[in-house]
Amino acid sequence: MPLFTRPIALLSTAFLFASVAWGDCECGYTVNGTLYTELLETDFLHTNQLNETGWMTQVYSVESDAARGPFGKAAEAKQVAPNPLKSRYDWAGDGIDGGDAGLQLIVSNPGKSGMIPMGEMATNRSDMRYGSFRAAIQLTGQKGTCGAFFWYLNNSHEIDMEFLSSQFNESSHPVNLVLQSEESVKAGYDAGNTNDFDTYQLPFDPSEGFNEYRFDWFEDRVEFYANGVFLKSMSGEGVPKDPGHLMLSQWSNGDPKWSGGPPKQDAVMTVSYVKGYFNSSDTQRQGDWKNRCKDINAPNATCEVPEITGPPQTNTTARTFFFSHQQNMTVNQTVSGGNPNTIESGAWSIHASTQSISTLMLLSALVLFMNWCS
Predict the structure, then answer these.
(1) Residues 270 and 103: beta-carbon distance below 8 Å
(2) Suppose 62 and one of 3, 67, 87, 116 were both cysteines; which one would form an S-S bond, judging by CB atoms 3.0 to 4.6 Å apart?
């Protein structure tokens, strides 16, 4: 090759290398053939730093009238407690503070107070519009609480999987599937009087181990699952269209028609993980996706989300798949939670810009080019 063509070839290669995305799954993640561009994964079994997980502890109070019950609700930071596993090599067992490992959301007896202490978390991101969301949860066995995993914008735009501990007995283990909508608001915030409510009897006791609860939100419907098994599909005007965020909550207002309670002693709901694969309403995030996804049909440009086939309860079955625990599968994604493959505990996050990565790659190639010419 003539001398003057070699630098040109090298420089052209540098520009080409800089233009492609760096890593697998750069175009997103698929669930049953539907592509989602964004990822949020949180491993609560291996982290004790909640402020770095992409979740916010909720702190607020609501008096009894607004809480629509005989008691008010008091969301407090002390009612949310990380309790990671004792060993980073484990995926099931007791936490460092005893009891089941994971994120604990606690409802306490109010004593003489008219406010029931409760625990609640919300994602930092509020740009989630359509997606597949799942959480592994062990519900409380204490009577008198409502445990919930849900997507939320406001009281008339909400997708709920709710568990009333007072409904659990030897023969009944229901999950309440709810779309809070304008219709339910008009019905006095009672979705039970609308078409956007159903109760599904689960074939297991939600208080006796972790199980994965999931909802897939499409433009025209919401599908609900438990341990990978389809439960119910809801459609119609109650399906939300605007972006919002994920929430985890356990609460009680003493309403005998819903939460019951308050519990006589601390009621603990434990979460081992949350995983979300979704699309973003944020224009910056949409632009980031266009920059990193150069060829959606390229090998490994999209990655299929593995589905569980049973309850994640043992050291084997609880070791579910995290893209964020793999090498190079979450480029330009925000991921969080302790990675048992690399750290003892704590949390970490990645939000690397594809444009920044490409710029660094180009500069590195130019340095090599200059060294080669010298």
Answers:
(1) yes
(2) 67
Beta-ladder partners of 56 = 122
Q: Which distant-in-sequence residues (6+ apart) come within 8 Å of 56 by Cβ? A: 121, 122, 123, 124
Q: Are 99 and 268 in contact (CB under 8 A)?
A: yes
Helix (H, G, I), strand (E, B) or coil at 264: coil
User: What does pTM read for this prediction?
Assistant: 0.85
74 sits in which H/E element: strand 72-75
The span from the CA of 163 to the CA of 140, in Å, is 9
Angle between helices 283-292 and 354-373 (to 10 degrees): 40
Cβ atoms within 10 A of the Cβ of 59, count? 13
Residue 316 has what DSSP assignment?
Answer: T
**Amino acid (one-letter) located at 89:** Y
The amino acid at residue 361 is M
Can you read off the two tokens belonging to residue 319? 């070791």
Tens-place pLDDT, residues 324-350: 999 889 877 755 544 555 433 333 333
Q: How many CB atoms lie within 10 A of CB 365?
A: 18
Other C-beta atoms closer than 10 Å to the C-beta of 190 total: 15
> What distance, in Å, lies between the first and last C-alpha atoms of the chain?
18
Tokens of 353: 């810009």
From the list 284, 281, 247, the residue with the least C-alpha distance to 152 is 247
Query: What pLDDT, in 10s, does the model give residues 243-286?
Result: 999 999 999 999 999 999 999 999 999 999 999 999 999 999 99
On whether the CB atoms of residues 122 and 140 are closer than 8 A, the answer is no
CA dihedral sign, ordered 105, 229, 172, 254: positive
Please check whether residue 258 is in contact with residue 148, taking contact to mean a CB–CB distance below 8 angstroms: no
